[in-house]
Amino acid sequence: MAVKNTTQVLIGGKIITLSGYESEEYLQKVASYINNKIAELSQLPGYNRQSVETKHTLLSLNVTDDYFKAKRQAEVFEEDLQGKDKEVYDLRHEMALLQVRLENAVNELNELKDKNHKLSGQVEELEKEVNELLS
After folding, report:
1. I want to staple 31 with a disulfide (CB 3.0 to 4.6 A). Which of 5, 9, 51, 123 is the partner?
2. Which residues form a coiled coil (predicted)?
3. Quick check: 31 and 11 in contact, CB under 8 A?
């Protein structure tokens, strides 16, 4: 079973204790993300004059917006991956069929070479017979 980690982080100028099964580095990364969002929102005109409740709501909305955009991007990547997996499957299938056709063509070529060799031998024999008859 995973070990629960506890760490103190600084969010919005306040020390908060976070705990979870993720690494301390991950928890610090989450806190850093929130701090960056707060800093980003603080750049907006009038944000600092809003009530704490409104600031929290705006922060929640921005984080949720990021989440849905990232989720959609992951879905697009997943769809793309599935499409590429199907394309790879189709290409492998086509390659296997082409390989069989190539093997059949090589076998047929070898058979034709053998037949050509035999026919060349027969032609030589017939030419000898003709030359003997003509001499």
Report:
1. 9
2. 95-129
3. yes
Please, what's the largest Cα pairwise distance for the chain? 122
- End-to-end CA, the chain: 101
Both tokens of 71, joined, read 């989720």
Q: What's the token pair of residue 36?
A: 């960056």
Could you report the per-residue pLDDT of 75-116, keeping only the tens digit for each?
Answer: 999 999 999 999 999 999 999 999 999 999 999 999 999 999
pLDDT at 2: 82
Has this prediction a pTM greater than 0.85? no
CB 11 within 8 A of CB 35: yes
Displacement of CA 121 from its chain's centroid (Å) = 59
* 3-state SS class at 22: coil
> Two tokens at 43?
């750049």
Nearest to 13 by CA among 55, 70, 54, 65: 55
